[in-house]
Predict the 3D structure of the following.
Amino acid sequence: MNDYGTSYLSVNAKETTILSVEKLGASVTFQLATYEYKSALRQLLELYKYDFTEYDPEDVNESGLYEYRDLDAYWNEPGHFPFLLRVDGKLAGFALIRRFVIDLASDTYGHEMVEFFVMKKYRKSGLGTLAADWLFRQFSGSWKLGIMEENKLALRFWRHAIASCVAASHYAEGQEVDWEGPVLQFEIKP
């Protein structure tokens, strides 16, 4: 049991993992999305991108879609991890995690939460914090998250999620040259 009243039945990022979530009164499943779930993930990305227009005024294309140009990398390139989140068997969100190089000479890598989405129906229930905690623990070592400057709610959520994760340490906020907004960095203990 951890601080959320959950039992980790498996913590291998290469297979479907189920948590018994007592706090939320629901069964929460984290699933590494195989290629057969690409379409479902793409649809969830559309909902995510629509929600995100509050901060990033992107327009839809002529087919009425927002598109997500790097999605194929999550099945075609190493170091990309697409996860689906389910509540009582129903799709509830997703996370896209990517490995990044810290130091090529020493073969040191970290992980970045590239995209993270929980459907509105499940927000403010603790599910997002629970999901973040579980995802962080799948990949020990260095982590980073870039938050858009305008997205104050996300910044507040991620500060809370990282602070709530007992495996997290060495938290720092900084900036990166190619990103407009804070970049949160921290370590996850194995």
Q: What stands out?
A: The longest strand covers residues 90-103. The longest helix spans residues 38-52. The radius of gyration is 16 Å. Confidence is low (pLDDT under 50) at residues 1-15.
